[in-house]
Amino acid sequence: MKKYAIKATANGAIDIVEFDELKSYETIKEAIGGGTFDCISIPSLGVDMWIDDEGKLMDEPKYSSFATVLWTLEYGMTDIVAGDVIITGGTDDEGNTLGLTKDGVIEVLTAVKQMMERIISIKVPVME
User: Which of 11, 18, 107, 105 is nearest to 63 (CA)?
Assistant: First the structure.
């Protein structure tokens, strides 16, 4: 069965890519731009979001709206995510990084879309 990951760039591009679980380290490192990275667990969706460890430390950080919305789903509006990210399907009992199933990809994309719609629908008062 094919496994997938979701790549989201700070420029707003979202791609579904095939994920070879035997090459997870290389795939994650390439997706976030080649530097060091951290893992943020998103337990409510059973996924992991891999982020650029130094994304916020850049001279001009590029914030990722997709990743920040995914963070907000789990932890509230407590932080923002900068740089490119890749979302994988959590880990197995031995700590190996897993890919997402097709249904897992759909679940993540749907959850992010619903949260974005909630954020967009917030009514902001207008002062005259």
Answer: 11
C-alpha 36/C-alpha 53 separation (Å) is: 5
- Cα separations in angstroms, 36 against 31, 52, 93, 121: 11, 6, 24, 36
Break the chain into its structural domains and give their ranges: 4-120
Alpha carbon dihedral 52, 11, 71, 59, in 10-degree steps, equals 50
What pTM did the predictor assign?
0.87
The predicted-structure confidence for 66-124, as pLDDT tens digits, reads as follows 999 999 999 998 998 988 999 999 899 999 999 999 999 999 999 999 988 888 887 77
pLDDT at 56 (0 to 100):
67
**HEC string for 73-120:** HHHCCCCCCECCEEEECCECCCCCECCECHHHHHHHHHHHHHHHHHHH
Give the length of the chain: 128
| Cα-based angle 102, 97, 21 (whole degrees, multiple of 5) | 65
DSSP state of 64: -
